[in-house]
Amino acid sequence: MARIVFFGLGNMGRPMALNLQNAGHQLLGHDIVPSMRDAFVAAGGRLGDDEASSLADADFVFSMLPA
Questions:
Q1: Which of 14, 22, 27, 54 is least enclosed, having the fewest CB within 10 Å?
Q2: d(CA 15, CA 26)
Q3: Number of helices (H) and strands (E), helices first, in the chain?
């Protein structure tokens, strides 16, 4: 399966990221807001250590950020 990095784990990003992860993809999430990161991990998500190392191995990158 694909290695995916997902930026933005808020109201839209978190469910999208978790759906991709639950479909069997290797997914690393990133968000600057601690409570969003905590909610993602509590729902079973995995956080990346840092953006650069996550991006180095990514097949796909999603950005779900506020405008």
A1: 22
A2: 15
A3: 3, 3
Q: What is the pLDDT along the chain (67 residues), one digit of tens a residue?
A: 999 999 999 999 999 999 999 999 999 999 999 999 999 999 999 999 999 999 999 999 999 998 8
Give the pLDDT confidence score for residue 44 in this predicted structure: 95
Nearest 5°: phi and psi at 51? -60, -45
Contact (Cβ atoms closer than 8 angstroms) between residue 5 and residue 55: yes
Characterise 24 by phi-psi region: left (phi > 0), alpha (psi -120 to 50), beta (else): left
Q: In what order do the strands lie in the sheet with 60-63?
A: 26-30, 3-7, 60-63
| C-alpha–C-alpha distance, residues 11 and 25, integer Å | 20
Contact in structure between 5 and 58 (CB atoms under 8 Å): yes
